[in-house]
Amino acid sequence: MTLLPELGRSATPERIVVLDWSLAETILALGRLPLGMAQPAEYSHWENVPQLPSAILDVGLATQPNLEFMQSLEPDLILLDERQSANLRHRLDRIAKVVSITVYNGDGQPLAAAEEATRTLGGLLGAETAAQALLADVHDMAAGCRARLDSATGQKVLCVIPQDERHVWIADRNGLVSNVIERLGLKNAWHGSSSLWGFTQVGIEALAAYEDALMLIGRFTSKSADEIDSSPIWRALPPVRAGRTASLPRFWYFGAIPTAMRLMPLITDGTLSARRG
User: Fold this and answer.
1) Domain spanning 149-276: which superfamily?
2) Does domain 2-102 have CATH number 3.40.50.1980?
3) Which residue numbers delimit the Fe/B12 periplasmic-binding domain (predicted)?
4) Which of 49, 78, 115, 223 has the fewest CB atoms within 10 Å around its CB?
5) Nearest to 237 by CA among 271, 267, 214
6) Matching CATH topology for 2-102 and 149-276?
């Protein structure tokens, strides 16, 4: 859902503060540099994301931004997620125009929502051509990856991120990772519980039933990876025992179209590697 204020047709926002990372990476991909962003250093900490320009100012936490500093920046537009809007909008409205755009709402379609967010932001920022080009790029990338995966069409895939020796986060049907898996012609094998953000914590014993799935293993920390690798239960899981696994880098998984474009080749390469065993 997108809530758009009356910005005026003659005024294209130039001084933009963005509190949501999925929106931040989208406007950057559209060629617009935000004035300020929530926790830019933490975003850049994730592997496989582009380094942010040093000119972007840190406005504090996404949920508790520095309102005085934001006001001093004199922005003409503030972008945030709708859930942030519920607690912050009445205060942010005193600083600048506010637009809330939601990619993750638990409906299982964040990739489609991210595409719509791209169109919305393109129109809002006078970057319609760049938005169309970005969406064409993600379409072409998906088509290229599907072609590489032609022999694996319909392959069941689990994407997990170890947390400790007994638990993993698993990509469920509500998340961007699941949407990307399906967009590439694969099948997300997980049919258990789901969460708003698309990753659900489960005990590793819950994975024992997925005998015919490949497993793509993301890394949260090196410690969690080492802990789970030493678990006898983990080593006994059918995909692990058979060597039908592949490692993924420590990727950011709650993004929008730029994140989807980074995930597509990772999932493609991982799937082909896991199939080779």
Assistant:
1) Nitrogenase molybdenum iron protein domain (3.40.50.1980)
2) yes
3) 15-275
4) 223
5) 214
6) yes
- Cα separation, 161 vs 179, in Å, equals 17
Decide: helix, strand or coil at residue 121. Answer: helix
Domain boundaries, the chain: 2-102, 149-276
Q: What predicted TM-score, i.e. pTM, was given to this entire model?
A: 0.91
Longest dimension (CA), the chain: 64
